[in-house]
Amino acid sequence: MAMKVKEVAELVGTSVRTLHHYDEIGLLIPDETTEAGYRLYSDDNLEMLQQILFFKELGFSLKQIKEIVYSPTFDRLEALSLHRNMLLEKRSRIDQMVETIDKTIKHLKGEIHMTNEEKFAGFDFSHNPYEQEARERWGDEAVDRSNEKLGRLTKEEQQALGERMNEIYRRLAEMRHLSPQSQAAQEAIKDWYEFLNNNFGHHYTLEAFKGLGQMYVEDERFTQNIDQFGEGLALFMSKAMAAFADQQKKS
């Protein structure tokens, strides 16, 4: 039985505006539209919407989802199997990180002692949640090269790499009240530029580095991740990266 757009929105827990947007961009086109202009969604439409929301939950952009679900080779059962495996993997990593948080709380209270290895359990740099976006922006070759380099690292080396990254984030967070163009900020952001270029098998041009900074504020997932070290850090880094790139081009 066909459902109206408001009914679908209430069923799914999304907004009517979102469903209208999906229709406008050709992602989810209702099977019927009445003479009065009301959208009517079939069971097939709802199944497609489920697929769309699964991909969205896993971090795919609407553009990527559209390319996938309308590909001639798209298979719903295969896609559901993929969704299940990815969600199980995600749940496993989250469970591990929750356990690390619980131990850290006890450690800070003096109830237990954590080793350095235990402090970083659950952080896995072999899985990049932004890989799909990276492939779209920079191409398969650059991402494959980065993954290959990271894959050669031992678990201890990956943990050390993660701690070095966090050190730079913390250092920048401490100075985010300063001007992004200040000498201290520019020295710290230079370390970030060199860290990225020396450890991930991909050379960032100054323009690409500046563009990466823009992603920190344009993509809310980047913003939320970076701002864990201090509210406003993503914006501060974005401005500092832009200033660094512009200054280096002049010199």
From TrEMBL:
Keywords (A to Z) from UniProt: Activator, DNA-binding, Transcription, Transcription regulation
Gene3D superfamilies the UniProt entry points to: 1.10.1660.10, Antibiotic binding domain of TipA-like multidrug resistance regulators (1.10.490.50)
PROSITE patterns with a match to the protein in the record: HTH_MERR_2
SMART domains: HTH_MERR
GO MF annotations in UniProt: DNA binding; DNA-binding transcription factor activity
InterPro entries referenced in this protein's UniProt entry, alphabetically: DNA-bd_dom_put_sf, MerR-type_HTH_dom, MerR_fam, TipA-like_antibiotic-bd, TipAS_dom
Residue ranges annotated for the HTH merR-type domain, each copy included: 2-71
PANTHER family registered for this protein in UniProt: HTH-TYPE TRANSCRIPTIONAL ACTIVATOR MTA, REDOX-CYCLING DRUG-SENSING TRANSCRIPTIONAL ACTIVATOR SOXR
Protein name per its UniProtKB record: MerR family transcriptional regulator
Organism listed in the record: Halalkalibacterium halodurans (Bacillus halodurans)
Organism phylogeny: Bacteria, Bacillati, Bacillota, Bacilli, Bacillales
